[in-house]
Amino acid sequence: MNINATLIGQMVAFFIFIFLTRSYVWPPIIAAMAERTKRIADGLHAADRAEKDLELAQQKAVEQLTSAKKEAAVIIDQANKRAIEIVEEAKEKARIEGDRLKASAQAEIEQATSRAKEELRSKVVVLALVGAEKILGSSIDKNAHNELVNKLAAEL
Description:
about 90% helix, rod-shaped
């Protein structure tokens, strides 16, 4: 094998090419690859963080939903108890009002009975006087015998 100027020229050109490539071309390519690797790693890290945040948010949502359901159950239970209390209060008020009306009606009945008795007494007195007048055949003076008539009315 002959080593001639062409081979030496090609070797020199190859070493210059390697030097230039290594000095000027290779660093931006390595930097771009490092940048790309860093962005991919950051993206994967962000995705992991987002996944963990999503899990935490889902757990928190489930906890809040459970808490809201419990609060709703408590509120519904309190509303039912209050409704029962209101019904019981209304029943008690109605019973009291009924008793009051019953007492009022009883008093009215007693007053009406008393008025009817008094009216009957006065009518009986008049009838007694008319009957006595007819029996005796003479007129009975009301003023003269008023005391006797009042006693008779009181006895009736």
